Amino acid sequence: MKREFLKSLELSEEVIDKIMTENGNDINGLKAKQTELEDQIKDYKTQVSDRDKQLEELKKSAGDSESLKAQIDKLQEDNKKATEDYEAKIKQMGIKSAVALALTNAKAKNAKAVEALLDLTEAKLNDDGTIKG
Q1: What are the φ/ψ torsions at residue 60 (nearest 5 degrees)?
Q2: Best CA proximity match to 128, nearest among 93, 98, 90, 92
Q3: What pTM does this model have?
């Protein structure tokens, strides 16, 4: 939204400032969500390529059934750990995104400085996108 458009509607400067601030908050929230989703996409692509490599290794070592079973067990364990790590990373990205949005909405002068002072070890993300803890 452009300031000139609002001026053409003959709105006062105070109203225009409030509208632009709210619009900025909405845009920042959407940008944070977009960044989070782009990071998720990159992680998914990495996981898919890793699993493709694992499948290729399985095809190469398909000769011995005992070693194949052991390798499958190892890969299942590795994939389970990778999934848990990924879910934890997604949770942290969601918390970080929600904190950044909350700091923006609270009009923090330096959001990075404020975020560095926060202890987010006990923080949890609510279903509505807000932070608890």
Answers
A1: -70, -35
A2: 98
A3: 0.48
